């Protein structure tokens, strides 16, 4: 402004000098700064002889005064804003003049009003206007408004454009774009009139009251969250904090467990795991939010030495269902927020219950999937067994039909047709003997197929004759560990075994047998076998017929008993030996002896009796003891008439 004014004056003077180079006026002081209403004066002088001098001014003006070399312009009370007193000089009929540079100012008498047209808190990175109203400023072109942010000048505004000399109201504007660090910052404006050296010292200056601003901003990035590995049982603290204005709210997302506790203190939120458990393994997300935005951070907690838990529960947890029957299973999450769905045969069922009115899928493997807050998604597989009772359970002999032969090897086969699943099947073999049931064998199958299949079990059989007529059967038992009810049993028919066996000749006769003259012996051959054997006696290759035969001393030799059935032929021989019967001879001999002794006795007696009336005699008993000579041997009475046969002879 000074520059401009001086330039103008210089130009004017230049013009004057061009017009009249001889005009030499000096105004002292050349520049005058006067407060409105104050007295003012200036001395205009020349060193040349003049015809007259004067001051041209609305106030304090003086007409041509002759014969002076200086002339004073004086105002007692300067109450004009726009005034330019001019001193002029007349010499040699020419006039020249000089202008007094006069600034009329006014004290800044009211404090600037600092305000903003925004109401409420400011938001980070928004644009805002601050206004500084300065009332009644003169001259406005000398006004400088300084803006302070804290103690730093951020802007200086001048108003040279305002050419109005009288007081005006001036407004300075500051456009700001606050950031989060500006929250609570104080702005102020300062108005100063720069009136130069000639002006009052210090220059008039007023300062506004400070204006504090509030800046709202969204939460900053979350700090303090870190992935953590801990041991089972230890305590974990996850700290989540983020600065924001207004103070943000904290929210955690994690798998809810009983030992988790969240506390907010000092502008941060802390999550405590009191005694870490396996189920605490997972991701913990902290959300920090205020009205301007949300940020989040996460930390993964791994609890060492513990399995990560899948908190899905199935009801029922295990299922055994007959093919074609209805089924229904519910899945839910224990103590956790989860989105639950089922995956069954590639299909997704978006709710917690899976079921079917008639399950017709042998290989169904339903899995419940939980998408958790804070946990990895996990899957729970349904333990489901689809079963089917066998179409038939049959029992029979392998490549054989009809009766079996004792001592040979056979295979009994139990076939279970179309049963599922085979791995839960046991084929049990039973037999009945003497009215009691005996468990023979249990067979299980390792085939893990879930589809219906047919299986068979083999029971080795080497029958003995005692096994004839006994009964076998097998039972297909489907047992499921989880099933509360009894196992499902499917029984085969009864298989009655007919055992053919070789004839056995009963021990009804000895291998050697004597016959006596004129006596007949009855030989009895009996044999047991299946089928019933045909029993015949033969003598000298001649058949003697079936059953009992009679042998006499005329036909001694080897007699053969042959028992024969389809299994085998069994023979047994008996040697019939002729034995002379000495009994009648002995008896006759004894009788003769008795007679002879009797005759001798009578003779002696008669002699003795003639000599003496009394005397002695003796008698020897020669009768043989034959009472036990005819006992049956081998504890059995064959009924043969074997009188007077010594034991020694019989047991040859
Ligand atoms: C004005 O200036 C002249 C010349 O310098 C001087 O003699 C005179 O005393 C001055 N008058 C006043 C009132 O200062
Ligand atoms: C505040 O004033 C400025 C300048 O006049 C204007 O651009 C802005 O829209 C105003 N703001 C409000 C909130 O009135
Ligand atoms: C300046 O502002 C004051 C107060 O608002 C008002 O009274 C006055 O008339 C204004 N002056 C001018 C020149 O606008
Ligand atoms: C077969 O299993 C049953 C129990 O299911 C048992 O009582 C029986 O003794 C077993 N039989 C054999 C031959 O092992
Ligand atoms: C079926 O048998 C298998 C193998 O023995 C067993 O692991 C499974 O638990 C059984 N199924 C049921 C439902 O009991
Ligand atoms: C009986 O017949 C067999 C052959 O069939 C013969 O070897 C044997 O000598 C015969 N025995 C008698 C006593 O004839
Ligand atoms: C053979 O003799 C025995 C014993 O004397 C008798 O029990 C049986 O009935 C007889 N059998 C025949 C076929 O005559």
UniProtKB/TrEMBL annotation:
<dbReference type="Pfam" id="PF07679">
    <property type="entry name" value="I-set"/>
</dbReference>
<keyword id="KW-0472">Membrane</keyword>
<feature type="domain" description="Ig-like">
    <location>
        <begin position="219"/>
        <end position="302"/>
    </location>
</feature>
<feature type="domain" description="Ig-like">
    <location>
        <begin position="503"/>
        <end position="575"/>
    </location>
</feature>
<dbReference type="InterPro" id="IPR013768">
    <property type="entry name" value="ICAM_N"/>
</dbReference>
<keyword id="KW-0812">Transmembrane</keyword>
<dbReference type="GO" id="GO:0005178">
    <property type="term" value="F:integrin binding"/>
</dbReference>
<keyword id="KW-1133">Transmembrane helix</keyword>
<feature type="domain" description="Ig-like">
    <location>
        <begin position="390"/>
        <end position="496"/>
    </location>
</feature>
<dbReference type="InterPro" id="IPR013783">
    <property type="entry name" value="Ig-like_fold"/>
</dbReference>
<dbReference type="InterPro" id="IPR013098">
    <property type="entry name" value="Ig_I-set"/>
</dbReference>
<dbReference type="Pfam" id="PF07654">
    <property type="entry name" value="C1-set"/>
</dbReference>
<dbReference type="InterPro" id="IPR003598">
    <property type="entry name" value="Ig_sub2"/>
</dbReference>
<feature type="signal peptide">
    <location>
        <begin position="1"/>
        <end position="21"/>
    </location>
</feature>
<dbReference type="InterPro" id="IPR007110">
    <property type="entry name" value="Ig-like_dom"/>
</dbReference>
<protein>
    <recommendedName>
        <fullName>Ig-like domain-containing protein</fullName>
    </recommendedName>
</protein>
<feature type="domain" description="Ig-like">
    <location>
        <begin position="112"/>
        <end position="207"/>
    </location>
</feature>
<feature type="transmembrane region" description="Helical">
    <location>
        <begin position="582"/>
        <end position="608"/>
    </location>
</feature>
<dbReference type="InterPro" id="IPR003599">
    <property type="entry name" value="Ig_sub"/>
</dbReference>
<dbReference type="Pfam" id="PF03921">
    <property type="entry name" value="ICAM_N"/>
</dbReference>
<dbReference type="InterPro" id="IPR003597">
    <property type="entry name" value="Ig_C1-set"/>
</dbReference>
<feature type="region of interest" description="Disordered">
    <location>
        <begin position="626"/>
        <end position="652"/>
    </location>
</feature>
<keyword id="KW-0732">Signal</keyword>
<dbReference type="InterPro" id="IPR047012">
    <property type="entry name" value="ICAM_VCAM"/>
</dbReference>
<feature type="compositionally biased region" description="Polar residues">
    <location>
        <begin position="626"/>
        <end position="637"/>
    </location>
</feature>
<dbReference type="InterPro" id="IPR036179">
    <property type="entry name" value="Ig-like_dom_sf"/>
</dbReference>
<dbReference type="GO" id="GO:0007155">
    <property type="term" value="P:cell adhesion"/>
</dbReference>
């Amino acid at each position: 402004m000074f520059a401009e004014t001086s330039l103008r004056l210089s130009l004017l003077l230049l013009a004057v000098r061009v017009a009249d180079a001889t005009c030499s006026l000096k105004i002292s002081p050349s520049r005058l700064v006067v407060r409105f209403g104050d007295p003012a004066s200036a001395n205009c002088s020349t060193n040349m002889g003049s015809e007259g001098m004067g001051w041209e001014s609305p106030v304090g003006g003086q007409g041509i005064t002759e014969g002076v070399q200086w002339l004073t312009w004086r105002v007692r009370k300067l109450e004009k804003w726009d005034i330019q007193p001019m001193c002029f000089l007349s010499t040699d009929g020419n006039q020249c003049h000089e202008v007094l540079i006069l600034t009329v100012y006014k004290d800044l008498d009211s404090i600037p009003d600092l305000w903003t047209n925004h109401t409420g808190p400011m938001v980070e990175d928004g644009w805002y206007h601050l206004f500084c109203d300065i009332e009644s400023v003169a001259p406005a072109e000398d006004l400088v408004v300084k803006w302070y942010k804290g103690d730093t000048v951020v802007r200086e505004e001048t108003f040279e454009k305002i050419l109005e000399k009288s007081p005006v109201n001036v407004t300075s504007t500051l456009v700001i774009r606050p950031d989060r660090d500006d929250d609570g910052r104080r702005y102020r404006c300062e108005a100063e009139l720069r009136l130069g050296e000639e002006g009052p010292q210090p220059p008039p200056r007023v300062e506004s009251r400070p204006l504090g601003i509030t800046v709202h901003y969204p939460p900053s990035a979350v700090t303090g969250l870190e992935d953590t590995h801990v041991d089972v049982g230890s305590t974990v603290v996850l700290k989540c904090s983020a600065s924001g204005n207004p103070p943000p709210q904290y929210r955690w997302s994690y798998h809810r467990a009983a030992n988790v506790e969240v506390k907010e203190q000092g502008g941060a939120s802390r999550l405590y795991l009191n005694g870490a458990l396996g189920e605490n393994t997972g991701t913990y997300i902290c959300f920090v939010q205020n009205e301007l935005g949300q940020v989040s951070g996460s930390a993964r907690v791994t609890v060492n030495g513990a399995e990560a838990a899948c908190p899905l529960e199935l009801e029922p947890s295990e299922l055994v269902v007959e093919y074609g029957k209805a089924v229904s299973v519910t899945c839910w999450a224990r103590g956790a927020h989860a989105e639950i769905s089922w995956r069954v045969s590639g299909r997704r069922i978006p709710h917690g219950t899976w079921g079917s009115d008639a399950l017709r899928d042998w290989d169904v493997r339903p899995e419940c999937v939980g998408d958790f807050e804070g946990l990895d998604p996990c899957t729970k597989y349904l333990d489901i067994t689809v079963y089917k009772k066998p179409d038939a359970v049959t029992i029979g002999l392998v490549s054989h039909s009809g009766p079996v032969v004792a001592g040979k090897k056979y295979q009994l086969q139990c076939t279970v047709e179309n049963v599922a699943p085979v791995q839960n099947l046991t084929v049990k073999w039973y037999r009945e003997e003497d009215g009691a049931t005996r468990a023979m064998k249990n067979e299980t199958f390792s085939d893990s197929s879930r589809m219906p299949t047919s299986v068979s079990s083999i029971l080795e059989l080497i029958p003995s004759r005692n096994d004839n007529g006994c009964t076998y059967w097998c039972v297909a038992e489907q047992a499921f560990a989880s099933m509360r009810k009894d196992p499902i049993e499917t029984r085969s028919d009864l298989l009655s075994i007919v055992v053919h066996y070789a004839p056995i000749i009963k021990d009804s006769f000895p291998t050697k047998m004597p016959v006596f003259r004129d006596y007949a012996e009855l030989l009895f051959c009996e044999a047991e076998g299946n089928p019933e054997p045909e029993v015949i006696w033969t003598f000298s290759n001649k058949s003697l017929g079936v059953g009992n035969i009679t042998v006499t001393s005329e036909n001694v030799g080897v007699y053969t008993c042959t028992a024969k059935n389809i299994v085998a032929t069994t023979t047994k021989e008996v040697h019939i030996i002729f034995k002379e019967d000495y009994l009648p001879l002995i008896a006759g001999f004894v009788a003769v002896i008795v007679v002879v002794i009797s005759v001798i006795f009578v003779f002696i007696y008669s002699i003795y009796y003639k000599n003496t009336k009394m005397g002695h005699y003796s008698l020897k008993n020669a009768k043989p003891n034959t009472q036990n000579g005819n006992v049956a041997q081998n504890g059995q009475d064959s009924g043969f008439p074997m009188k007077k046969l010594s034991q020694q002879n019989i047991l040859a």
